[in-house]
Specification:
Elements (H helix, E strand, L loop, with lengths): L5 E5 L5 E7 L5 E4 L15 H12 L4 E4 L1 H5 L11 H11 L5 H6 L2
Parallel strand pairs: 3-4
Antiparallel strand pairs: 1-2
């Protein structure tokens, strides 16, 4: 079976029915921390931390890891590319799962 393929349900005898399902592979995102956590105390990039983080996020299967600063960062930030309607839908859909402090920010 392939992603996007239509699969028909079968009855108790194994014959196809009119009911069907499509196989999909939804994308998933995990948003954590920020890239500044990969800097050393002197302000320079900690190469070992950065390399470890990049190896970890590039080798996960089916989950894309992004940081909060990548999500919000300037005109290239992911949220800036959403239309007002898409952003509103996103914020209202996650508001119930946010902490009370975060909920205040999206009001």
């Amino acid at each position: 079976m392939e992603i996007g393929e239509r699969v028909f349900d079968k009855d108790i005898e194994g014959a196809e029915t009119e009911r069907s399902t499509f196989l999909i592979r939804p994308r998933s995102f995990l948003t954590i921390g920020d890239l500044y956590q990969l800097y050393g105390t002197s302000g320079g990039v900690n190469v070992h931390k950065l390399r470890s983080f990049e190896l970890y996020r590039r080798n996960l299967y089916e989950t894309e890891i992004i940081t909060f600063d990548e999500l919000l960062d300037g005109p290239n930030g992911i949220l800036r590319k959403l239309s007002a309607k898409e952003l509103f839908r996103l914020l209202t859909s996650v508001r119930g799962s946010l902490s009370s402090g975060a909920r205040e920010l999206v009001r």
